[in-house]
Design brief:
The relative contact order is 0.21. The chain has strands spanning about 20, 30-35, 40, 45-50, 55-70, 80, 105, 115-120, 135-140, 160-165, 175-180, 190-195, 205-210, 225-235, 240-245, 245-250, 265-270, 275-285, 290-295, 310-315. With about 325 residues, it is an all-beta fold. A hairpin with a 2-residue loop joins strand 3 (about 40) and strand 4.
């Protein structure tokens, strides 16, 4: 077990740390939408018979991926800062994804306290940070009493805090905290995915941090994160359908359609900055018909019995 226990209290003074910093204020914003129908869509075409109805629907969203980091470059990606010198050589548990994919591991080559921090995210027309935004990530604690850099947290207070700051990192507020539960918790000592909502609607730029402020020293209490995704929904979404004969509709799922002509049905989704689009061609084919023509009067047996020759079938589609 650990000896010479020292508690390191949380403090953030930039003059005390050597920061490796990478900056980005851009987000990966987009709108996506997809059409489905009550009949099969093949090569963007849905076939119906004349006089039939079709139900069209769509699903989509506009949003901003403020952060999408898998650390597969073997380094902190754009948009991070750290004063804990993380490593990316997968020293402990296998990766939560493909075994060779690097993860971010806070091991023994660290200063204290230990913090990984995102850049501050500004508000914008399509990706204002709000309490609808989510922060999802994989996290793993090393198991207690294993060799460094795979020695895990065990004492109360040695777990990881997910925090936010709205004043440039001067003050930090917990979003959640995960205790080590003694260092052998089977849920904490394997990779698991965690998702948290941003708890406020900030009016100033906001940044997020994974923080450990209590350890027993560099050779103890190690942990890692991977696959960090911070996403925010759009403030406004506008859906517009257009189609044959002047058809328009302004929601995801229009009412039943009974088209009389073939044509394209197109749906647009926009947040006023980005646009997503999908379309389907509704092809109207003639309704099948069938008539029977007997060459001579009679019952029309196909073997010509009862004095009748074989019947002829006429109809559509061709061949009767």
């Amino acid at each position: 077990m650990k000896t010479n226990k020292t508690n390191f209290l949380s403090f953030v003074f930039a003059a005390f740390f050597i920061l490796s910093t990478f900056f980005s204020v851009e987000s990966n914003a987009q709108c996506t939408i997809d059409i489905s129908a009550s009949v099969s869509i093949v090569n963007d075409t849905a076939k119906i018979c004349a006089g039939d109805i079709i139900l069209l629907s769509s699903i989509g969203t506009c949003g901003a991926s403020l952060m999408a980091e898998d650390f597969n470059t073997g380094a902190l990606g754009t948009g991070w800062s750290a004063q804990c010198n993380p490593q990316f050589n997968n020293p402990c548990d296998p990766s939560p994804n493909t075994p060779a994919d690097p993860y971010c591991w806070v091991g023994s080559a660290v200063s204290q306290p230990r913090r990984l921090t995102t850049v501050a995210y500004n508000t914008g027309p399509s990706n204002t940070v709000s309490d609808l935004c989510t922060i999802c990530f994989d996290m793993d604690y090393a198991t207690q009493s294993q060799p460094s850099p795979c020695e895990g947290p065990d004492y109360t207070g040695e777990g990881i805090h997910l925090q936010y700051s709205i004043n440039g990192g001067v003050n930090w507020t917990d979003i959640n905290y995960w205790d080590s539960n003694g260092g052998y918790d089977p849920q904490m000592t394997v990779w698991n995915n965690y998702c948290e909502n941003v708890p406020i609607n900030p009016t100033t730029p906001i940044q997020f941090s994974w923080f450990q402020n209590v350890t027993s020293g560099n050779n103890f209490d190690h942990w890692g994160i991977d696959d960090v995704i911070i996403e925010c929904p759009a403030i406004q979404e506008i859906i517009t359908w257009t189609g044959p004969n002047g058809f328009t509709f302004n929601d995801f799922n229009p009412p039943l359609q009974a088209p009389t002509v073939s044509g394209w049905y197109i749906v647009h989704l926009t947040d006023t900055t980005y646009v997503g689009e999908d379309s389907v061609y509704v092809l109207i084919v003639p309704s099948p018909s069938l008539s029977v023509d007997f060459a001579v009067p009679g019952y029309g047996c196909s073997n010509g019995s009862n004095g009748s020759s074989a019947m002829t079938l006429i109809g559509t589609p061709a061949g009767g």
